[in-house]
Amino acid sequence: MQSIISVQALTKAYASGHQALKGIDLDIRRGEIFALLGPNGAGKTTLISIICGIVNPSSGVVLADGHDIVRDYRAARSKIGLVPQELSTDSFETVWATVNFSRGLFGKPANPALVEKLLRELSLWDKRDSRIMALSGGMKRRVMIAKALSHEPQILFLDEPTAGVDVELRRDMWEMVHRLRASGVTIILTTHYIEEAEQMADRIGVISQGRIILVEEKARLMAQLGKKQLSLQLQSPLAAIPEEFAQYPLELSADGQTLVYTFDAQGEQTGIAPLLRRLGDHGIDFKSLSSSESSLEDIFVSLVRQPR
Ligand SMILES: Nc1ncnc2c1ncn2[C@@H]1O[C@H](COP(=O)(O)OP(=O)(O)OP(=O)(O)O)[C@@H](O)[C@H]1O
Ligand SMILES: [Mg+2]
Fold this sequence. Notes:
Elements: E1 5-13, E2 19-28, E3 33-37, H1 44-51, E4 59-64, E5 67-68, H2 73-78, E6 80-83, H3 95-105, H4 112-121, H5 137-149, E7 155-159, H6 167-182, E8 186-190, H7 194-200, E9 203-208, E10 211-217, H8 218-225, E11 227-234, E12 250-252, E13 258-264, H9 272-281, E14 286-293, H10 296-304
Parallel strand pairs: 3-8, 3-9, 6-7, 7-8
Antiparallel strand pairs: 1-2, 1-4, 4-5, 9-10, 11-13, 11-14, 12-13
The structure holds adenosine-5'-triphosphate (ATP) and magnesium ion.
């Protein structure tokens, strides 16, 4: 199946000389939710801005639904809706006029029923006659989403859609993203809330210092890199881990009360049973035990941690 977005050997050096993208290759599959993660300044917004034709690439090729974003800009852009990271919506226009105008910009005939549906879905219907400048930040963000969807794009970019958004709206947005995906829209989002990517994405891409360092199915990523931990709350505190256990991936908490055993979530054998037996043999008893699994956040942090 042909990918809906294809990025090949893309680089970007800004006029300042800063090399923001250092050779990006990336394929986005039709109909997926793709989360692009990376620390501040990694190049996420630059990449999205190039795909959306807002920033010129230095070299490389980007195809959106088969259309070259430079040579065939209009056709490519008409497929794409963008909710930018920076809101630029302070205007005297009303919500209703703004969203209808956006649709017109793409040469689409007026469709009041569609705009009404969008505004209702985004809980903006009551605000349709308000001027944009009179809306709260979260409402403005929703207007940006309505604008981005007004021309019925097949690809939707959400650059940090939930930054500064309250819990309820965030949940509404997740639902909306799932509905859009169900209707066939491909969604690419960036977020610093890793938990959001964990909940929503089919695939995860990690970008760091202008390079894609990983692209993987979310489920695979979590299974491959995920670690599990078993914590044992000890009957009596230990001063140190006994010599005999030096070979085990064990850590002792500062207060000596808890032993933490880390094991591979993928592994066939966890090694827990023999460990517990050996601990028992050495008279190390525990009151209780609990286990935990590393989150996508742990995985992400370990991936982008810079050697200093
Ligand atoms: N217009 C510009 N001129 C010069 N440098 C820029 C420009 N825009 C971005 N940069 C630089 O390019 C790099 C990547 O920025 P970009 O906005 O793409 O990062 P990001 O991954 O979106 O970060 P964030 O998570 O903070 O939004 C940064 O070092 C930034 O300073
Ligand atoms: Mg950004």
